[in-house]
């Protein structure tokens, strides 16, 4: 039995187990199982690998271990190295552990469904989720500005955006990488001058529960195109599967 799974600290709301279980049934994939492995501390990771060997083929990694797990890997691909976060691990037949970041691919593929020529972006949030997004924007040659609660040499603040509407007018792609608006706090949204949005704007929210966030609703009210994080989530899951099964291009 080939074993796959997800490691993290709290996994009761995991998307992955249900997704891969349905994938195995739908596509007639046999002799595979996908389980959740909650780790109270990343120090338990080596024991998990030992206990699941030699059947373990691959793992996904979620918060808070996307950075911490890197110390236990034998190598990483170029995107994971640049992003400094791993969410997919491939276990080779000889036990070598290789880290990847499939979030990068999931976001990039989902974003490219839009017409992006000539657009620049505001990236809301500077946490771990923003790292793969920024790398994808750089590789797509899309200029971007990071937005945080406090300004710094690398970020502007929400107060600055609210004081100067040109930030909204000049950046037609707005990406929310914060958890604001996630169920059950569905009324929350980033502090932006939403009255400055137009039908030319594109709003991408990494949140996928609820399907329509308060942030996205503001975009819809202005006639903008919107997208939630579900397609990105599916994309990163399928990329993980391709990596584990040597179908990665």
UniProtKB/TrEMBL annotation:
<protein>
    <submittedName>
        <fullName>Shikimate dehydrogenase</fullName>
    </submittedName>
</protein>
<comment type="pathway">
    <text>Metabolic intermediate biosynthesis; chorismate biosynthesis; chorismate from D-erythrose 4-phosphate and phosphoenolpyruvate: step 4/7.</text>
</comment>
<feature type="domain" description="Shikimate dehydrogenase substrate binding N-terminal">
    <location>
        <begin position="6"/>
        <end position="89"/>
    </location>
</feature>
<keyword id="KW-0028">Amino-acid biosynthesis</keyword>
<dbReference type="InterPro" id="IPR036291">
    <property type="entry name" value="NAD(P)-bd_dom_sf"/>
</dbReference>
<keyword id="KW-0560">Oxidoreductase</keyword>
<dbReference type="Pfam" id="PF08501">
    <property type="entry name" value="Shikimate_dh_N"/>
</dbReference>
<dbReference type="InterPro" id="IPR022893">
    <property type="entry name" value="Shikimate_DH_fam"/>
</dbReference>
<keyword id="KW-0057">Aromatic amino acid biosynthesis</keyword>
<dbReference type="InterPro" id="IPR013708">
    <property type="entry name" value="Shikimate_DH-bd_N"/>
</dbReference>
<dbReference type="InterPro" id="IPR046346">
    <property type="entry name" value="Aminoacid_DH-like_N_sf"/>
</dbReference>
